[in-house]
Design goal:
By secondary structure, the protein is an alpha/beta fold. The chain has 15 helices and 26 strands. A 9-stranded mixed β-sheet has the order 2-1-10-9-11-12-13-14-15, sandwiched between helices. Helix 1 runs antiparallel to helix 2, helix 1 runs parallel beside helix 8 and helix 9 packs across helix 10. The longest helix is centred in the N-terminal third of the chain and has 17 residues. It is globular, with a radius of gyration of 23 Å. The N and C termini lie far apart (52 Å).
Length: 509
């Protein structure tokens, strides 16, 4: 299974305009606390954004940087950019000026669309950009007047199916993120393979997402996927807490919750969890980090909503391994999504037997063009039809994949491979552990040993030794953490994942 679009293909038409042509123009597309927008209204909004982007100097194939909170304006800017044949670059609207300057210079964006609340930081960075023609500040009175005066109709640019459509950002825990250049075809292909044939989105669904739209995971699950079938997406600008998620679910009654392990942990541990009504949900998804079986079990016990863990990458746009309704195996990533092929290989590229841990190789119709201005890394990761991920996995004889960690996080301890997630999963089962991350640290003898950083539920003098013994009793002795450090919070990367690089560099500080 794969999707083969015509040569002239623009995903603004595929995801948005086609719904209006189908007669779904009056259906609700977006839901916010302030009200609802129909597909017809979103189409007009996108058309008007497209006109204003053109007036600002954006041209086909040029990059438009979008730094907006989750709102109708984000959706209008994204589809408006695609409609004029330009390329969307999505970034966190809360970036600091030095990070903004990096993204402006790296992307060479000619136009940036930002919210008025973040305009000062972007103006400071924009003054040092040689490529930016115009900074569009939305949601102030002047912008609303200009938007209302723009034409409501706009002919889509005749994009080629292999043209760049959206930049996604990928990166480890150190250094600047690198751009993954994805095509129009990729977004439609994963929609057909995963959204329709695994999750089964229908026009009756209402989606709500914990990660924000500038994350590729949410761009798909909480915008493109529901739009592909005429469903509705709930958008809210607030930062997520368990209380915010519970309140939005109670108010908007979504049927699909797009979640991440960190928030799953917060939700199951929230004092009001047992009183929260999640009965509107037919399923929830999890991605972005490994989901421990123990945490999955607590979710099932507290909420009873089917939770589908999966794995995707920016380089293959979105999920290609997933559990599915009726075939959920906690502690695994599930099975291969139809339309993709996954294999487990050693360092030389030879396929490994079931049960062995190796590098994840994946191919399918959603493979990116490559990394922007990163030819060496492109050649390392993109090998013919295949993308070689830095994820380490194993496959069971019946086709379920288990996540073992990132290759650069794997530890060689006492001559044996150790997956940090295995130790993290073990420690997560201890009642005193709220969150945990395990990294490798070179000791005074020059040997690599596992260290655990723990956010505890409770503190007591003997807890560190108790946790070490807890691991020794359940795993092979060499896997126990030699040092346990207690912290208030775990540092996070720009993608919302645990920043293992900061943990490693923070040793001794």
């Amino acid at each position: 299974m794969s999707f083969h679009p015509p040569e002239q293909f623009n995903i603004a038409d595929y995801f948005l305009d086609a719904r209006v042509r189908e007669g779904r123009g009056e259906r609700t597309a977006l839901i916010t606390d302030a009200g609802r927008l129909s597909y017809g209204q979103v189409e007009v909004l996108a058309n008007r954004f497209g006109h204003l982007l053109r007036q600002a100097g954006a041209e086909p194939e040029q990059r438009v940087l979008i730094a907006l909170p989750d709102s109708p304006a984000f959706v209008g800017a994204l589809f408006g950019t695609l409609k004029i044949g330009a390329v969307v670059v999505m970034v966190n609207p809360e970036l600091k000026p030095d990070a903004i300057e990096y993204f402006l210079n790296y992307s060479r964006a000619t136009v940036a669309v930002v919210h008025r609340d973040a305009s000062k930081a972007f103006e400071a960075a924009a003054s040092r950009s040689v490529h930016l023609k115009r900074l569009l500040v939305v949601d102030d009175a002047e912008w609303q007047e200009r938007l209302a005066a723009a034409p409501a109709a706009l002919a889509n640019f005749p994009s080629h199916r292999d043209d760049p459509a959206i930049w996604l950002f990928s990166g480890g825990t150190t250094g600047h993120p690198k751009a993954v250049v994805q095509t129009h075809t990729s977004f439609a292909n994963t929609t057909e393979c995963y959204a329709r044939h695994v999750i089964g989105y229908t026009e009756r669904d209402v989606t709500l997402s914990v990660p924000k739209l500038f994350f590729g995971y949410a761009t798909g699950s909480n915008l493109l996927f529901p739009f592909s079938v005429g469903a509705s997406a709930v958008l809210f600008p607030e930062r997520c807490t368990a209380q915010v998620v519970f309140e939005k679910i109670a108010r908007h009654r979504p049927t699909i919750l797009i979640n991440v392990p960190t928030m799953i942990n917060h939700m199951v541990n929230d004092p009001g969890a047992a009183r929260s009504d999640l009965s509107s949900l037919r399923l929830a998804t999890s991605a972005g980090e490994g989901l421990p079986a123990e945490l999955h079990g607590r979710w099932d016990k507290v909420f009873g909503v089917p939770l589908l863990d999966g794995l995707g990458t920016a380089e293959m746009w979105h999920i290609f391994l997933s559990n599915r309704l009726g075939r959920i195996r906690p502690g695994t990533l599930g099975e291969v999504v139809p339309g993709f092929e996954v294999k487990v290989c050693d360092e030389g590229g030879s396929e490994l037997a079931d049960g062995e841990v190796g590098y994840l190789w994946v191919r399918g119709g959603s493979r990116a063009i490559g990394y922007w201005q990163q030819m060496e890394k492109t050649q390392q990761g993109f090998r013919g039809e295949w993308f070689v991920s830095g994820d380490m996995v194993s496959r069971s004889p019946d086709g379920f994949f288990s996540y073992c960690g990132r290759s650069d996080d794997m530890l060689k301890v006492s001559g044996k491979w150790l997956a940090p997630q295995e130790v993290e999963n073990c420690l997560s089962q201890h009642p005193a552990v709220l969150q945990v991350a395990v990294v490798g640290v070179v000791d005074s003898s020059g040997l690599l040993k596992p260290h655990a950083f723990v956010v505890p539920r409770e503190q007591r003098p003997d807890l560190a030794e108790e946790l070490k013994a807890f691991v020794r009793d359940r795993l092979e002795p060499y896997k126990h953490p030699r040092v346990i450090r207690f912290v208030d919070v775990l540092p996070m990367t720009h993608l919302g994942k645990v920043d293992r690089g900061k943990l490693r560099s923070g040793i001794g500080n």
